[in-house]
């Protein structure tokens, strides 16, 4: 490798896992559907330079290991905890080969069906907001966990506006203090300390994000811009959860355009809209605490 530097990793991507836990004394079933991707860094330079595969953990073996570990988890566990189990397995099983592991996971939002006000024991339906996680484990054993949410689609039909922005020769958008606000939100947050329960923490963060977006049920809360609402949502999460060190939110502004066709009898009165998602406004930001200790991987 004289004169060259090689960075490499390998693994198995998009391994789909369905895991069902049946209670020993209860008829209530617990079910999750995960998508798991694993990348490992390892001492396999001879595979690249000399065609020597003797230290490669085959990607098919990585896939099979994921199913084996899912089977071994006889008690229900969170997406993040399973990611830690997977990552640590490769470092502990191949200590002379594997130097690091990254596990990226997502969980379909299956939620229990409610029939006549009672939760069904074994019936599920898809909800909104997909749970995501990333687990990175370094050669020194340091574990870094990131949680997130995707596809959280929120809309409110009033209590939103956009005024007093920059105006120049390219501006045709009018000021308004009455409009719809809609977004399909992606969020990612990092922990400085492990919460008591990752799944419950994720559910609580989702609730804080939604509650801040909408405001109280009777009146809501006014949004002067997507930027302001994003900041209020991110700040609310950091205030509520001291173990979260930062949060990144991506909030595209999904437009509902006024339909105004007076010549055919359709006068816009905040009632008829054209839904569109392309093009859309793109707004994102990351809010962090100051002077957070970083785990060195």
Automatic annotation (TrEMBL):
Gene3D superfamilies: Urate Oxidase (3.10.270.10). SUPFAM superfamilies: Tetrahydrobiopterin biosynthesis enzymes-like. GO terms for molecular function: urate oxidase activity. It is found in: Peroxisome. Belongs to the uricase family. GO terms for cellular component: peroxisome. The gene is LOC112291670. InterPro entries: Uricase (IPR002042), Uricase_CS (IPR019842). Catalyzes the oxidation of uric acid to 5-hydroxyisourate, which is further processed to form (S)-allantoin. Urate binds at residues 59-60, 162, 179, 226-227, 253. GO terms for biological process: peroxisome organization; purine nucleobase catabolic process; urate catabolic process. Pathway: Purine metabolism; urate degradation; (S)-allantoin from urate: step 1/3. Signal peptide: none annotated. CDD domains: Uricase. It catalyses: urate + O2 + H2O = 5-hydroxyisourate + H2O2. 5-hydroxyisourate binds at residues 60, 162, 179, 226-227, 253. This is Uricase. Keywords: Oxidoreductase, Peroxisome, Purine metabolism.
């Amino acid at each position: 490798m004289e004169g060259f530097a090689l960075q490499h990793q390998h693994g198995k991507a998009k391994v789909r896992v369905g895991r069902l836990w049946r209670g020993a004394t209860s008829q209530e079933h617990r079910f999750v559907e995960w998508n798991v991707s694993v990348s490992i860094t390892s001492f396999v330079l001879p595979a690249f330079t000399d065609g020597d595969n003797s230290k490669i953990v085959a990607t098919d073996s990585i896939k099979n290991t994921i199913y084996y570990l899912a089977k071994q988890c006889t008690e229900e566990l969170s997406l993040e905890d399973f990611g830690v189990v997977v990552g640590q397995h490769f470092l502990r099983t191949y200590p002379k080969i594997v130097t690091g592991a990254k596990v990226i996971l997502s969980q379909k939002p299956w939620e229990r069906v409610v029939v006549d006000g009672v939760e069904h024991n074994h019936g599920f339906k898809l909800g909104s907001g997909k749970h995501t996680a990333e687990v990175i484990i370094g050669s020194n054993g340091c574990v870094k966990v990131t949680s997130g949410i995707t596809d959280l689609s929120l809309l409110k039909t009033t209590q939103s506006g956009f005024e007093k922005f920059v105006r120049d020769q390219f501006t045709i958008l009018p000021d308004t203090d009455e409009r719809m606000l809609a977004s399909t939100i992606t969020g990612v947050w990092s922990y400085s300390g492990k919460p008591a329960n990752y799944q419950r923490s994720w559910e609580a963060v989702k609730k804080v994000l939604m509650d801040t977006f909408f405001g109280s049920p009777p009146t809501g809360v006014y949004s002067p811009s997507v930027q302001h609402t994003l900041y209020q949502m991110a700040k609310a999460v950091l205030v509520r959860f001291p173990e979260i060190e930062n949060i990144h939110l991506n909030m595209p502004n999904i437009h509902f355009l006024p339909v105004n066709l007076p010549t055919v009898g359709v006068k816009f009165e905040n009632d008829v809209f054209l839904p569109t998602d392309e093009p859309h406004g793109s707004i994102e930001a990351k809010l962090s605490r100051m002077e957070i200790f970083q785990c060195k991987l």
